[in-house]
Design goal:
The protein has 234 residues and is of the alpha+beta class. It is built from 4 helices and 13 strands. Helix content is 24%, strand content 35%.
Amino acid sequence: MTWYIFLLLSYIQLSFGYYQYNIKKNKFKPSAIKNMKTHFESYFEGEFSNEVQANEALLLGKPTAALGGHEFITVSINSHPSLNNVKVAIYRIGNNVTIPPFRFRFYELFYPFDERIIMKIYRPTKLTEAKLLNNQYNIKEYLPDTLDSTTFEYLDGCDVEWTCNNQSHYKGELINKSCIICSQNDPNMKLLIKDDLNLWENELWICDKAYTTSGQQIIGNKDGIPYKLKRIHL
């Protein structure tokens, strides 16, 4: 019993010391969390495009990821007008906003008391997708203001952890290294997802890959080269 009490007191002392250390380093102060949130979101939000990379791939005869190149895509990430810490992400082939996007996501951000940012990912249900399509994905006309299961599906197990490597770069990785989801086109098809993200002030690199249960890669550059998107200054 004496040893148990000794170990317990030692643990409490070490924990308190760690807390005090991080207080001194400003890691646990509300102001530090607020500053990190502001800094990250100033990088994360905006309009991005890999047009330069796609044009280079086209000249090399590699217009698609399956051929080792990259399609021309644009990504728009902005704050939801009424949901706190939720971002609306719209992924399109090219930059024609009249064409429905190939991916529409809600990203919910959490800021724990350390140097991590946790991002939960939601995709629209079939009903929500139909409503979005009916409004030509014009989010000014229709945008769900809830994350309940009738409007969005939470991709359980696919949470992303962002860490700040230095003052100018964030690294995003799946907490579980990979996750399994059902294909939206075929609910009976299971997909293994892997993701690697890099974010700078003016660049967003996306290296997401999806594999069938037989190991066939159906999404992502076959050589593992990320989509290198640059910020569009409107």
